[in-house]
Design goal:
DNA methylase; 242 residues; 7 helices; seven-stranded mixed beta sheet; transferase; methyltransferase activity; alpha/beta; 19% strand
């Protein structure tokens, strides 16, 4: 029988989580609500991030933590590498416009370093061509949110159950090919085309600590990672750091 994992505690008695490619903290807040102390890292300065953060390249930072042994401060790693390479929205838009822009795929090097860390992790990506295992797929309707926002998660070093998908209640509000459609969800991406106001987007996503549209449209709802964090902690035995 597989024994439950043992993870370290920090002084405030919460397991510590490393949030890579953290943006403004959509994932981080969910993990904090689940019971983690969170440290972020992003190459872009994110002053709205509500927890301690490292400003720099996420993979360089992770490699440094592994090389120095500082990675052992952490119990779990969340990584949301840039998704433009494989995102269905980006791929479709580029094809329709004939843009053909090349985006860097950071999923594979992220996975390689996460494997070297020895820690349990998740890699998050939107629907599209990103080459991750879809161990878990979450949708805003599962949590009663005002966005659909399907997101896939690859779980490394642990397993997470897949909840049943909840049927959508209608369309995403906005224009499609010049025609306006109403619906119970807002479009949490881009500008124009009947996109929501900042307050509408904040309410739909469950995010109130940033009012920057770019940060809101790049975020995942905290409800997703609260679910993931709670699932991980429910299967884990906490150990005390030396």
């Amino acid at each position: 029988m597989t024994q439950p994992a043992t993870i370290r505690r920090v002084r405030d008695h919460r397991p510590r989580l490393l949030d890579l490619f953290c943006c403004a903290g959509g994932a981080a807040v969910g993990y904090a609500r689940a019971g983690f102390a969170v440290d972020g890292c992003d190459i872009t300065d994110r002053p709205n991030y509500p927890f301690p953060r490292h400003h720099g390249d996420a993979l360089t930072h992770l490699a440094h933590l592994i090389a120095t042994g500082e990675i052992h401060r952490y119990a779990f790693v969340h990584a949301s590498p840039p998704c433009q390479h494989g995102c269905a929205l980006t791929v479709g838009t580029n094809a329709s416009q004939g843009w053909g822009r090349t985006h860097v795929d950071l999923v594979a090097p992220t996975r390689e370093l996460l494997g070297a860390s020895g820690l349990p992790y998740v890699i998050e990506q939107p629907n599209g061509r990103a080459k991750i295992r879809k161990d878990l797929t979450l949708c805003g309707e599962m949590f009663g949110l005002g966005v659909i926002r399907h997101r896939n998660f690859e779980a490394g070093g642990w397993t997470v159950p897949q909840p049943a998908h909840v049927p959508h209640r209608g369309r995403v509000r906005g224009y499609r090919h010049g025609q306006y459609f109403d619906g119970p969800y807002v479009a949490a991406y881009g500008n124009g085309g009947g996109k929501p106001s900042i307050p509408e987007l904040q309410a739909a996503m469950g995010i109130d600590w940033t009012d920057v549209r770019e940060e809101l449209t790049e975020a995942i709802p905290p409800a997703y990672t609260e679910h993931i964090g709670a699932a991980f902690l429910a299967t884990t035995t906490l150990g005390v750091a030396a």
